[in-house]
Amino acid sequence: MKLLYPAVGAATALLTATCCPALAQTPANPVQPWGTWFIGTVQLPGNATHKFGGFAEVQARTNGLFKQYFYNELKAGGSYDIDPNFTVTIAGGRYSTSDYRNLDAPPLNTERRLWEQLTLTQYSKRLKLEHRYRIEQRWFNFRDDSTGFRQRFRYRLNAFLPLNKKTITAGTVFLAAYDEIFLNPKGPVFERNRVYGGVGCQISSHVAVQLGYVNQANYNYTARQGQFILQNTAAKNNIVMAFTYRIIRPSTTLPAVEKLPSQQD
Questions:
Q1: Cβ 113 vs Cβ 86: under 8 Å
Q2: Where are the beta strands (DSSP E) in the chain?
Q3: What sign does the CA torsion over 202, 203, 207, 212 have?
Q4: What start and end residues bound the annotated signal peptide (predicted)?
Q5: N or C, fewer C-beta in 10 Å, the chain?
Q6: How far apart are CA 179 and CA 242, in angstroms?
Q7: Are residues 102 and 110 in contact, defined by beta-carbon separation less than 8 angstroms?
Q8: All domains of the chain, ordered by start, with CATH?
Q9: Which of 120, 111, 117, 112 is nearest to 90 (CA)?
Q10: pLDDT (tens digit, 9 = 90+) per residue, 96-138?
Q11: Which residues in 53-83 are b (16+ Cβ under 10 Å) and which e?
């Protein structure tokens, strides 16, 4: 009988060590439902005669596939073509995040953003590359009346591959892919990564549509002894549906420059 108590105690300790952590712990990277992004853009690109251009865009996102709306963006800006392959842009926007379970309540956060951007394009016989560099200034207003300010740096490498033509013109079907990193100058530096892949069609010189997939991963850190330690990664998959209308200026005597159907986001 005396030997029975240590045996029972050891068995209990073993079951507690193996079973209880499995019940108590939560996944470090919880699985999130698929969401949906809807993007509508109007573009006025510059050309050899009219170097100034601009854009306006509206965007809506849902937490689930075509349901649980919670987020929207309204933004616009102006651009200037330094040369056909190098464009600078200044733009701003309003970004609103709500609780999809209670849309009648005020937004959880309303952000106003200003950014400065450089875009460099490279053209080969078929593959088209776009390098985009952006600096953002962000002002936050939260539901509890607190406010905040942050800056952020972004770099996106965007690639296009036309399938049925060598250039992206009217009637072209194309593949599109990009990877974009988001950097926080105050740390932790690596804040977000966004990967996109999709297929599109330049229906006419004015209209382009794209259907794709984007994975957005947010990296959450905690501060310990003056260092940022990665706590978890919140990654979400989304279906992206994008519609772009391009305003075409009157033709000039100079040859037209191929314009890429880039998402302004």
A1: no
A2: 35-44, 52-64, 67-83, 86-97, 109-123, 128-142, 147-162, 172-183, 190-202, 207-224, 227-246
A3: negative
A4: 1-24
A5: N
A6: 17
A7: no
A8: 32-246 (2.40.160)
A9: 117
A10: 999 999 999 999 999 999 999 999 999 988 999 999 999 999 9
A11: bbbbbebebbbeeeebbbbbbebebebebee
Task: Read off the pLDDT of each residue in 66-70 and give the average, rounded to a whole number.
Answer: 96
What does the DSSP 8-state code read for residue 3?
T
Average pLDDT over residues 79-102: 96
Count other Cβ atoms within 10 Å, centred on residue 117: 19
Quote the CA–CA distance of 131 and 157 in Å, as a whole number: 5
Q: How far apart are CA 237 and CA 225, in angstroms?
A: 34
Find where tokens 């804040």 sit.
191
Over the chain, what is the mean pLDDT? 86
**Structure-derived torsion over alpha carbons of residues 84, 86, 90, 92, reported in degrees to the nearest 10:** 90
Q: Has residue 1 got a pLDDT over 50?
A: no
Tell me which amino acid residue 219 is. Answer: Y
- In this predicted structure, the answer to whether residue 176 has a pLDDT above a threshold of 90 is yes
CA angle 87, 191, 31 (to 5 degrees): 120
Task: Classify 155 as helix, strand or coil.
Answer: strand
Number of neighbouring beta carbons within 10 Å of residue 202: 25
Q: Please give the structure tokens belonging to residue 11.
A: 């068995």
